[in-house]
Amino acid sequence: MIIALSILLLFIVAVFLFINQPKFGKMPSGERLEIIRKSPNYRDEKFQNLSFTPDLTEGETYLKVIKKVLFEKSKRNKPAAVLPSQKANLHALLPDENVLVWFGHSSYFMQVDGKKILVDPVFSGAASPIKATTRSFPGSDVYAASDIPEIDFLFLSHDHWDHLDYETVLQLKPKIKKVITGLGTGAHLEFWGYEAAIIFEKDWNESLDLGDGFLVNTTPARHFSGRGFKRNKAIWLSFVLQTPNRKLFLGGDSGFDSHFEAIGKEFGPFDLAILECGQYNESWKYIHLMPNEMLSAAKNLNAKNLMPVHWGKFALANHDWDEPIKNVTEAAKRENLPLLTPMIGEKANLDGLPKSESWWLTVN
């Protein structure tokens, strides 16, 4: 009995020490928490989706999901070869270039109308606090924080590990002029040394004039948040970014719901919508777009062009690594919707949309 209690105590201490590492961030408190509690989207001490959104699909349990993750993964869950990639010198971009560079998963850089923008950067090679469980695919890490120039606007959609990477944001800190994110996420950033003056935390359905003809509206998503045991203490966002010459939808993570149609009616049409297309599963179908829903979301948004993200870097679901992009490519052909599908690291010209090359077909 004494040995068993000692082992249990050691386990509890180990877990406590593990989850209190700086990379887990910090819960909102003080004035920030008071602002959060006034949000119409914060009820019962947590943020809520517009529609009822269970963590798991009806009839599923965490035990069943763990079993599926451990024993029912596709044999092609990860690519069998190194992914092809390119690398551009982002420090040497000409001021009038309008380009997008995708880093895999949901991370990408844009230079648009003279401003440099970074979205959900993850350069650490992993997407969880235990790196060995979520290693990035070989070939998908051709960029590092040192390759990123000074950033005018850093957009962070939510605080999950595959979107808010501790190592990356620490390394980028001297380069960031402004951070635009959701209520609550600023607590992590301040804890990690970011100045409060450059952090702009927003609720759904708010706007922020970024100057020089750039305006962002923060719009809903259907998802959740959290870096540890406590969920939904920070809100998850999508963004409508209006620049002097174009309108972009930066989707973040979201399951399908009526908010896509509402956003499309209020802000569309969009020159480009960037939407997730991977890491889905019937067991958690409410918090990510399922294969038959991505094109519906793009149509509801009234998107002229579509870029699929949230694939090509991490295996966070059981499907084939390239299943998401194959699904969306076939659906886009049927709907005659132009796709932007650059190779990881490739410099895609935003003035010459679309650029759609099936580079993934060269990988087993």
How much helical structure, as a percent, in the residues?
10-25%
Order of helices and strands: HHEEHEEEEHEHEEEEEHEHEHE
Strand order of the largest sheet: 8-7-6-5-4-3-15
Mean pLDDT across every amino acid position: 94
| Radius of gyration over C-alpha positions, nearest whole angstrom | 20 Å
What is the count of β-strands?
A: 15
Structural class: alpha/beta
Overall geometric form: globular
Our count of helices gives 8
Task: List low-pLDDT spans.
Answer: none
Sheet having the most strands: 7 strands, mixed
> First CA to last CA: what distance?
53 Å
Question: In what range is the share of β-strand residues?
Answer: 15-25%
Fold topology:
Layout: H1 2-19, H2 30-37, E1 42-43, E2 46-47, H3 62-71, E3 99-102, E4 108-112, E5 115-119, E6 151-155, H4 166-172, E7 176-182, H5 186-191, E8 199-202, E9 206-211, E10 214-219, E11 238-242, E12 247-250, H6 259-267, E13 272-276, H7 294-301, E14 306-309, H8 323-335, E15 347-349
Helix pairs in contact: 6-7
Which descriptors would you attach to this protein?
364 residues, alpha/beta, seven-stranded mixed sheet, six-stranded mixed sheet, 8 helices, 15 strands, 22% helix, 18% strand
Written overview of the protein:
The protein is an alpha/beta fold and 364 residues long. 22% of the residues lie in helices and 18% in strands. A seven-stranded mixed β-sheet has the order 8-7-6-5-4-3-15, with no helix packed on it. A hairpin with a 5-residue loop joins strand 3 and strand 4 (108-112). Helix 6 packs parallel to helix 7. The longest helix has 18 residues, at 2-19. The radius of gyration is 20 Å and the shape is globular. The model has no long low-confidence stretch (mean pLDDT 94).
